[in-house]
Amino acid sequence: MARILILGAGVAGHTAAQHAKRLLGNRHEITVVSPNSQWNWIPSNIWVGVGRMKKSQVIFPLAPVYKRKKINFKQAKAVAIWPEGDSSDSHGAVDVIYTDPKRAGETERVRYDFLINATGPQLRFDLTPGLGPDQGNSLSVCTYQHADHTAKELKNIIEKMKSGERQTLVVGMGHGACTCEGAAFEYVFNVEHEVRQAGVRDMAEIIYLTNESELGDFGVGGMTFDIKGSKVSSEDWMTSLFQDRGVKVIDKAHVTKVDPGEVFFEKIDGTLASQKFDFAMLLPPFRGVEMKAFDVSGAEITEKLFAPNGFMKVDADYTAKPFEQWSAADWPKTYENPSYDNVFAVGIAFAPPHAISKPNQTPTGNPVAPAPPRTGMPAGVQGRAAAETIANRIKSGNLRAPAKEASMANMGAACIASVGAGMLKGSAATITMGPIVPDRERFPETGRDLHITSGELGLAGHWIKRLLHTMFIYKAKGHLGWSKIPE
Ligand SMILES: Cc1cc2nc3c(=O)[nH]c(=O)nc-3n(C[C@H](O)[C@H](O)[C@H](O)COP(=O)(O)OP(=O)(O)OC[C@H]3O[C@@H](n4cnc5c(N)ncnc54)[C@H](O)[C@@H]3O)c2cc1C
To answer: Which of these, 44, 58, 194, 445, has the minimum number of CB atoms within 10 Å of its CB?
Structure first.
């Protein structure tokens, strides 16, 4: 019997657990360690954050699903990895601390034969003074609890506008090295839509504050679309959308601090400026979760397993090189750790080799460098690929059997960005691109295949996005036919 240990029950970890169980049945032991009792469909936090959905609609408890599937679930957080085992047992192990209220604070060393690290991001609000709900000066939609709180604040300021007070709303990135511009983009347009629906659009100044060098960059270096035979840049497409909705843009900015009612930033050209606000939703930069690693003697080997940003090293080319030399081939294919081939990292937890957008700095050295986005679809595909590699190796008895590949430089993505909720008046920007990481060798003109890279705006996109919400929650609950729903 082999033991497969999966850290994290988000898109990547939960998908890996479901597929590992499907492929291996009950003859092998699958265990998931994750600190939260609830599964969260994070994309719909945007709708919770504008009060269109209740938080109960975007979560469900994990324990009953894992019990039904005969997957062990430990509500705990991983804090250390022993990939070579320790003096008492040569099998790899992970130290966990329970967050389950019944065992809170208890520790355990959990053994594994195969490990999948899918621990997602650590939300580093603390890297910007004053940023985020804990430091208190801005709001967030990163978790369902944050989004629920943010919706209440939005309701309050809409009431103020109704009573005749003009309000300034700032939405965007709370640090120059942030990722997830797509989420901030969705949220700013959902806020604009709500304010318009409330009949107070003329009382609101809405501002999008971003680290992107140009609109439509989204951390993937922008895109060129083929729209009805004409080439259109994502920058032009987005610029017309922002103008159409009257959303002001502050771009090329690194936020340096957030005070009550005022956000301070430095631009790429060194300009120091600030913007006053009545409502601000600003995303944090991401880092890997806090985890240490030790060798069999107990010596710390964290740097061997993890990159300096805390994400786990995988089969990528991490050689430092200038932007001009970045290549699609640098990106990982199998997500195996280079030192331990029974350890994988998938989803946001793996360390990307470099950014995709060209990174910039301010004259004082602050980053204005969108980090590469790792969205839900690639996270799910990578989780499934790691599960398939492990299942194949266990079933064939060949621990060197080739790994399943799922490179982001060989994978297309479809992103449906809501720009307003509502079955009749809603709208969404549907963007498809392939590959996610541009490949200038295969597609010298734009780095991407123009046959599949396209953008479209309309109500149909909203319906699809709403349908995806229902489909992915159905799939995550593991109901009949779940595995037929693609990642
Ligand atoms: C507001 C918002 C909107 C978004 N909208 C979209 C969208 O529309 N489309 C899209 O494709 N993507 C979207 N994304 C991105 C998407 O949410 C991520 O791509 C996806 O969640 C990544 O999956 P993951 O499994 O890597 O990480 P996560 O989903 O974050 O899961 C990480 C898991 O690890 C657990 N964990 C954390 N620490 C530990 C630890 N120490 N030990 C064990 N477990 C741990 C967490 O509890 C969680 O279960 C959005 C993101 C945000 C923030």
So the answer is: 445
Residue 425 pLDDT: 82
- Whether residue 382 lies inside any domain: the answer is yes
Atom of ligand 1 at shortest distance to CA of 349? Answer: 26
H helices within 328-451, ranges in order? 376-396
- Flag whether 47 is in a domain: yes
d(CA 188, CA 209) in angstroms, rounded, equals: 10
Q: What is the CA radius of gyration of the chain?
A: 22
Among 111-120, 186-195, 223-232, 326-335, where is mean pLDDT lowest? 223-232
Q: How much of the chain, in percent, has pLDDT values that exceed 70?
A: 100
What spacing in Å lies between the alpha carbon of 487 and ligand 1's midpoint?
A: 14
Task: Kindly state whether residue 140 falls inside one of the protein's structural domains.
Answer: no
| Cβ 377 under 6 angstroms from ligand 1 | yes
pLDDT at site 440:
92
Long-range CB pairs of 23-26, under 8 A, 24+ apart, other chains included:
23/387, 23/388, 23/391, 23/395, 24/391, 24/394, 24/395, 26/70
Total of domains in the chain? 1
Closest CA to 309 of 96, 81, 82, 122: 122
Is residue 437 within 8 Å of residue 356, measured between CB atoms?
yes
Q: Is the CB of 183 under 6 A from ligand 1?
A: yes
Looking at residue 129, its pLDDT comes to 98
Residue whose CA is closest, atom 32 of ligand 1?
120
Rounded CA-CA distance 153/307 in Å is 37
Determine whether the shortest distance from the Cβ of 9 to ligand 1 is under 6 A: yes
Nearest-angstrom CA–CA distance, 68 and 18:
11
Tokens of 342: 């029974």
- Establish if 475 belongs to a structural domain: no
35 CB near ligand 1 (under 6 Å): yes
Please tell me if the CB atom of residue 362 comes closer than 6 angstroms to any atom of ligand 1. Answer: no
| Ligand 1 neighbour 12 (Cβ under 6 A) | yes
184 within 8 A of 220, measured Cβ to Cβ: no
* Burial class of residue 22 (count of CB atoms within 10 Å of its CB; 0-12, 13-18, 19+): middle
Q: In which domain, by residue range, is 98 found? A: 3-123+288-396
* Exposure class string for 198-234: b at 16+ Cβ within 10 A, else e: bebbebbbbbbbbbbbbbbbbbbbbbbbbeeeeebbb
Contact present, 427 and 462 (Cβ < 8 Å) = yes
Of the pLDDT bands very low, low, confident and very high (cuts 50, 70, 90), residue 423 is: confident
The residues that bridge with 433 in the sheet, in sequence order, are 413
**From residue 168, how far is each of 50, 171, 203, 247, 408 by CA, in Å?**
16, 10, 9, 11, 38
**Is 215 touching ligand 1 by the criterion CB < 6 Å?**
no
Integer angstrom CA distances of residue 481 from 19, 25, 485:
12, 16, 7
